[in-house]
Each structure stands twice: as structure tokens, then as C-alpha cells.
Write a structure and sequence with these properties.
With 111 residues, the chain is mainly alpha-helical. It has two domains: 1-72, lambda repressor-like DNA-binding domains (434 Repressor (Amino-terminal Domain)); 73-111. The chain has helices spanning 3-18, 23-30, 34-41, 49-59, 63-68, 77-84, 88-109. It is elongated, with a radius of gyration of 16 Å. The mean pLDDT is 87.
């Protein structure tokens, strides 16, 4: 068992639990088998970059956090939880709305 795999697995596990996902739900969102996800979480298996990207996208965290343990931007924890519950399409739309909102209030502050 590789120390790096163990640490990565622990971060995936804790992020999944914190986000309220079951292993089954995350495996569905990330398109991996439940057993493979369990093996990753327990540090028994490593994954490809493609799999890592699908997992971090589903969990709405950065690859830097999962791989290196760099803390996620915790000030947006509530926003992250909301976004994590959305489908990829809904998340994309929410990001567009948030960008439009930010531009609108920024514009209004100038007056």
C-alpha cells in the first residue's frame, strides 16, 4: 500500500462523507465501480488522471486538494455544497448565473 494512495483515499473518503454522498452515489457520478472506489478510498488502488478528474468534479473540490491536501476554499462551503448536489449541466448553469450576478452587482457599485 502506497502512502500517497492512502492519503488520497482518505481525502476522497472524508470529502465524500462531508458532502453527504454514499459510495454508490459517488461511484455513479464519477463513473467508476463501487468496489474500485472503495479500493481507492482505502488506499489499495491508484487511479488514472481521468478517473481523478471525474471524482474531483463530482465532489466539487480541486485535484490539488485531493492529491496534495491543500485546503479547499472553505469560505464558500455552503456554495460548494449546493453546487455538489447539482448535475454537471445544472452546475454549469449555476456558475453562469453566479458570474452574471457578480457582474451586475459590481456594475451597480460603480453608480
Amino acid at each position: 500500500m502506497d502512502i500517497g494512495n492512502t492519503e488520497v483515499g482518505k481525502r476522497i473518503y472524508s470529502t465524500r462523507k462531508c458532502g453527504g454522498y454514499t459510495r454508490e452515489k459517488l461511484s455513479e457520478l464519477a463513473d467508476v465501480s463501487v468496489q474500485f472506489l472503495a479500493d481507492i478510498e482505502k488506499g489499495r488502488k491508484s487511479m488514472t488522471v481521468s478517473t481523478l478528474r471525474r471524482i474531483v468534479f463530482a465532489l466539487n473540490v480541486t485535484t490539488d486538494y485531493i492529491v496534495n491536501g491543500s485546503e479547499p476554499f472553505s469560505e464558500n462551503e455552503n456554495i460548494n455544497k449546493i453546487l455538489a448536489a447539482l448535475s454537471p449541466y445544472q452546475r454549469e448553469q449555476a456558475e453562469k448565473l453566479l458570474q452574471l450576478f457578480a457582474e451586475t452587482i459590481s456594475h451597480n457599485e460603480k453608480f
